[in-house]
Write a structure and sequence with these properties.
Blueprint: H1 9-12, E1 14-21, H2 27-37, H3 57-65, H4 67-72, E2 75-80, E3 83-88, H5 97-104, E4 109-115, H6 122-133, E5 138-143, H7 152-163, E6 166-169, E7 171-174, E8 182-185, E9 190-193, E10 204-207, H8 215-219, H9 222-238, H10 244-249, E11 252-257, H11 266-276, E12 285-286, E13 298-306, E14 315-323, E15 325-327, E16 331-334, E17 339-342, E18 347-350, E19 353-356, E20 359-361, E21 365-370, E22 379-381, E23 387-388, E24 392-394, E25 398-404, H12 410-423, E26 427-431, E27 437-441, H13 445-458, E28 462-466, E29 471-477, H14 479-488, E30 493-495, E31 501-505, H15 508-517, E32 521-524, E33 526-528
Parallel strand pairs: 1-3, 1-4, 4-5, 5-11, 6-11
Antiparallel strand pairs: 2-3, 7-8, 8-9, 9-10, 12-23, 13-14, 13-22, 14-21, 15-20, 16-17, 16-22, 18-19, 18-21, 24-33, 25-27, 25-28, 26-27, 26-30, 29-31, 29-32, 30-31
Helix pairs in contact: 3-13
Residues 21, 23-29, 51-53, 92, 143-144, 146-147, 259-262 line the site of guanosine-5'-diphosphate.
Keywords: Cytoplasm, GTP-binding, Nucleotide-binding, Protein biosynthesis
Protein name: Peptide chain release factor 3
Binding site for GTP: 21-28, 89-93, 143-146
């Protein structure tokens, strides 16, 4: 199933996606089973990045310590049947939502995991809305069907209503909770029976010939069968049938029911991603769109992770390949600086190991170790100077002042802060008045992680303290107007880590006033990264 028969086969077989879910719905477990079926790990249980999902500070710090795991968990590639899957991880905690947003710029589709007992939860809703902004195709997995779960129609209704998307069942559960025996695979007319004894075993699958096949009675107890038949009749009447085009356009989501921990429904979902998920998509760029099949190689940085090895201050830039066939050693032009860069040691994230990437195609994610040249939003290419668009930076919602425990170390602190700003872990502003820095984040947990990392990676104890400002806005407009505005509002002006002018304030009233008094200047809450 492809809408681009002209794509080179290597590109057409790629599926690059992320999983969106509320903490505890089963994202980690599902990822593990993907890798298990993808042959990347021998036994489930090897990827234990954050198993018991209590998202506390120590979890994040542990992940920071275990850099190996958190890095390979950032992007994972595996093969299943003749498809190559690239799974890009999104941070589960809402405090890291900016990171999540950027991650979603690097994928072509999302798998939405919901808990069958809980339905659409708050974090799922938020992430879904981000996907909607980009019209990303979404495939839904309703997990934990081995437990007491809600009525199937109720779950489908809730998704349709809360998320305003058509839902079409790809499978249908038979029995609930302890009585759950498996699913009817609507797309293939098969009955899949769950094995509760062996959690890593693939379900027994029975071919069925329509609703009247006598095999139903053989496998399904009479009282479950009656209810199931009634359900399926009603589903046929009330719910839309699968329309692959609507799925690709992001207006319809197919839903599979399963149990990740029992490996049930996972392979059907993987095949669904292959059959109904999009191949690598065109990438919006200036001055023109990049097509995946172009001969020239192009890719963009959507994430930077620093200090993976505290002994060498190295960083890895995560690059989504947008076009062409990349091979190791290739010389790419770094568009922002117009300098050539030989990419001699790129990393491909094959499951839990980091391996040298010999080649990568449009759709793949590679890691490029560097010393800070590569920033979020940067484009690399063998062709003309194209700049990928649509990777935003958001004004932080929380601001705090930061000081080094030892005042003599403030230069040192500046270096550390700039590093984290480039990594996208925080915004750093230098007010033009007075000394010190102001750090801005989206969620409070980020301050704690930052303080610990500065101490751990730079040996520098720091103190965060209340700032006189609570909001920051980027200032743009005509150069003279901006200069005039800055001169008249000196005590509110600062610069960000790129040297761009920001307006700092505590009052929304101030922001409104600027709008009225300086019609030539605009204050914005987002900025394009490049
Ligand atoms: P995450 O926070 O979304 O990554 O969720 P996890 O994968 O860590 O799962 C949260 C909890 O739910 C863990 O205790 C899992 O063992 C459990 N879990 C995951 N999938 C299933 C399932 O299909 N059935 C049941 N009963 N529990 C599950």
């Amino acid at each position: 199933m492809t809408n681009r028969p002209d794509l080179p086969a290597e590109i057409a077989r790629r599926r690059t996606f992320a999983i969106i879910s509320h903490p505890d719905a089963g994202k980690t477990t599902l990822t593990e089973k993907f890798l298990l079926f993808g042959g990347a790990i021998q036994m489930a249980g090897q990827v234990r990045a954050k198993g018991e999902a209590r998202r506390t500070r120590s979890d994040f710090m542990q992940m920071e310590k275990d850099r190996g795991i958190s890095v390979s968990a950032s992007a994972m590639s595996f093969d299943y049947k003749h498809f190559r899957y690239n799974l890009v991880d999104t941070p589960g905690h809402s405090d890291f939502s900016e990171d999540t947003y950027r991650t979603l710029t690097a994928v072509d589709a999302a798998v939405m995991v919901i808990d069958g007992a809980k339905g659409v939860e708050s974090q799922t809703q938020k992430l879904f809305e981000v996907c909607r902004l980009r019209d990303l195709p979404i495939l839904t997995f309703c997990n934990k069907m081995d437990r007491e779960s809600r009525d199937t129609f109720e779950i489908i209704d809730e998704i349709q209503e809360n998320l305003a998307i058509d839902v079409t069942p790809a499978s249908w559960p038979i029995g609930v909770g302890r009585d759950f025996i498996g699913c009817y695979d609507i797309l293939r007319d098969r009955l899949d029976i769950m094995d509760r004894a062996d959690r890593n075993k693939v379900a027994e699958s029975v071919e069925i010939n329509g609703m009247d096949d006598p095999k139903w009675e053989e496998h399904v107890p009479a009282h479950l069968l009656a209810k199931f038949r009634e359900d399926i009749e009603m589903a046929k009447e009330l719910l839309p049938t699968l329309d692959p085009k609507a799925v690709l356009e992001g207006t319809m989501t197919p839903i599979w029911f399963g149990s990740a921990v029992n490996s049930f429904g996972v392979r059907e979902l993987m095949e669904g991603i292959a059959n109904f998920g999009p191949e690598p998509q065109p990438q919006t760029a200036q001055p023109r769109t990049i097509m995946p099949e172009e001969k020239n190689v192009a890719g963009f940085v959507f994430k930077v992770q620093a200090n993976m090895d505290p002994k060498h201050r190295d960083r890895v830039a995560f690059v989504r390949m947008a076009s062409g066939h990349f091979t190791r050693g290739m010389k790419l032009t770094h568009v922002r600086t117009k300098k050539p860069m030989a990419i001699s040691n790129p990393v491909l994230f094959l499951a839990s190991d980091r391996e040298l990437a010999e080649e990568a195609w449009a759709g793949d994610i590679i890691g490029i170790p560097n010393h800070g040249q590569l920033r979020i939003g940067d484009t690399l290419t063998t062709g003309e100077m194209l700049q990928v668009k649509g990777i935003p930076s958001f004004a932080p919602e929380l601001l705090q002042g930061v000081r080094a425990g030892d005042p003599l170390k403030s230069k040192h602190l500046e270096k550390a802060l700039m590093q984290f700003a480039e990594e996208g872990a925080a915004k750093v502003f230098k007010p033009s008045f007075g000394s010190g820095f102001i750090v801005g984040v989206v969620g409070p947990l980020q301050f704690e992680v930052l303080a610990s990392r500065i101490e751990l990676e730079y040996g520098l104890p720091v103190r965060f303290e209340q700032s006189q400002f609570t909001s920051a806005r980027w200032v743009s407009g005509d150069k003279d107007a901006v200069e005039k505005f800055s001169a008249a509002n000196k005590q509110h002006i600062g610069t960000d880590s790129d040297g761009d002018t920001v307006y700092l304030t505590r009052l929304q009233w101030d922001i409104d006033r600027v709008g009225r008094d300086y019609p030539d200047v605009s204050l914005t809450a987002t900025k394009e990264m490049m």
